[in-house]
Write a structure and sequence with these properties.
The chain is an alpha+beta fold. It folds into three domains: about 110 residues, Acyl-CoA dehydrogenase/oxidase, N-terminal domain (Butyryl-Coa Dehydrogenase, subunit A, domain 1); about 110 residues, Beta Barrel (Butyryl-CoA Dehydrogenase, subunit A, domain 2); about 140 residues, Up-down Bundle (Butyryl-CoA Dehydrogenase, subunit A, domain 3). It has eleven helices and nine strands. It has a four-stranded antiparallel β-sheet, with no helix packed on it. β2 and β3 form a beta hairpin. α1 runs parallel beside α4, α7 packs antiparallel against α8 and α9 runs antiparallel to α11. It is globular, with a radius of gyration of 21 Å. About 50% of the residues are buried. The chain binds flavin-adenine dinucleotide. Flavin-adenine dinucleotide (FAD) binds next to β1 and α11.
Length: about 375
């Protein structure tokens, strides 16, 4: 058993930290959040470092499929900027990882080099107005018409679809086939005729908004079916396999990043803030909260890296990824709320990062399969009788 972080991962972490210190210092992260704008110029410089190729093999223009490195990149970006971390995911994971696992050879040759270079993003179109956790029930339809596919329906919370090249869209492709055999993924450009985007307002993740997206007789070439002809009606295995498996870890990696940043801030604040003639760090209530927070982040990180290690070895890790998503995101939420408590009123005030961490961390146990859904997965997969 070797817990040493590989050299290339240490180098990646340091590269991203140096990059963020230069291009996205805390005051800038606050400004982008306040202005509710996506830091596109910063992302473009980040992509130029080559980090977005970490899910793509070298033969397709990447640096090799490396889940651990990908999680460390997300963690480091998440420490400073939720929108940068999510943009990285939309590119390297929603794009790179899915096309590598599910795309046809033609799609791999065409799309992976652009995704690896950080020049193309995907948005996820899974959720619908009446469909949340029960994704097999999506109602957006795709019908074959000659060598095109016609899409009708509506998606909700389609995050980043305004700037994505393609929406990675889950559709019902066969109205008569049994459940789980009637779904496909298609690539729909948000600019296609008949696609309408309406911005939604949410509590956190400012600068990277979600959209209601409607599809009104949207016609796309059949070559946009993910996996080509062989991918038609194979959407469920694509979704249940690589797509949601590693997505759970991506959300957990953001959680480790945000929680770690919150502990650093609260720790430093407790050393400086004096009350009753002493730093508040001298009071046991504060010391224990910070010691617990450090311990929880350490445990969360170990769990994340272990699951990433399993995924890197292509081992079946459905249970471990669900446990990681559940534990890490719930832990991150409780750690950030404790750190906010340590900072008292300043944990609630604009001008400090803590209030942003709180807004952002609350999202993590909801997306990518809620905590209840992860508990269901764990109990079901471990064979607990119903
Ligand atoms: C900011 C933001 C960004 C998002 N980005 C995207 C995106 O880019 N693409 C996308 O497709 N979606 C996105 N989503 C949607 C997100 O993934 C949804 O939260 C998810 O689809 C679940 O739907 P729901 O939250 O409506 O919950 P529902 O599924 O409606 O569940 C409601 C409640 O019931 C519980 N519940 C449901 N079923 C069960 C069950 N079987 N057992 C126990 N409890 C259950 C849930 O845990 C939850 O507490 C985003 C959401 C937000 C808020």
């Amino acid at each position: 058993m070797d817990f040493a972080e590989p050299e290339h991962v240490v180098a990646l972490r340091e590269t991203i930290r140096r990059f963020l210190a230069r291009e996205m210092p805390p005051a800038e992260a606050q400004r982008w959040d306040r202005e509710d704008k996506f830091p596109r110029p910063v992302f473009d410089k980040l992509a130029a470092l080559g980090v977005t190729g970490s899910t793509v093999p070298e033969e397709y223009g990447g640096t090799g499929r490396d889940i651990l490195a990908t999680m460390v990149a997300i963690e480091e970006l998440g420490r400073r900027s939720f929108p940068l971390a999510v943009a990285f995911i939309n590119c390297a994971c929603y794009g790179g990882m899915n096309i590598l696992e599910c795309g046809s050879e033609k799609q791999k040759r065409e799309l992976l080099p652009k995704l690896a270079a950080g020049k193309m993003w995907f948005a996820y179109g899974l959720t619908e107005p009446d469909v949340g956790a029960d994704l097999a029930s999506v109602r957006t339809t795709a019908a074959r018409k000659g060598d095109t596919v016609v899409i009708n329906g509506a998606k909700r919370f389609c995050t980043g679809s305004d700037i994505a090249e393609y929406i990675y869209l889950l559709v019902k492709s066969d109205p008569t086939a049994p459940r789980y055999q009637n779904l496909s993924f298609v690539l729909v450009p948000p600019k296609a005729r008949g696609v309408t985007l309406t911005r939604m307002d949410t509590m956190g993740l400012r600068g990277f908004p979600s959209f209601d997206v409607t599809f009104d007789d949207v016609e796309i070439p059949a070559e946009n079916i993910v996996g080509g002809e062989a991918g038609w009606n194979k959407g469920w295995p694509m979704l249940a396999g690589p797509t949601l498996g590693v997505e759970k870890l991506e959300v957990a990696a953001i959680g480790v990043g945000i929680a770690d940043a919150a502990v650093d801030d609260a720790w430093a604040y407790s050393e400086q803030r004096q009350q009753f003639g002493k730093p508040v760090s001298s009071y046991q209530a504060i010391r224990h909260m910070l010691a617990d927070a450090k311990t929880k982040v350490h445990a969360a990180r170990l769990m994340l890296y272990h699951a990433a290690w399993l995924a890197d070895r292509n081992e079946n890790c459905d249970v471990e990824t669900s446990m990681t998503k559940l534990f890490v995101t719930e832990t991150a939420k409780s750690v950030v709320l404790d750190c906010q408590t340590v900072m008292g009123a300043y944990g609630y005030a604009h001008g400090f990062d803590m209030e942003r961490y709180v807004r952002d961390v609350l999202l993590l146990p909801i997306i990518g399969g809620s905590s209840s859904i992860q508990r269901n997965n764990i109990a079901n997969r471990l064979g607990l009788p119903r």
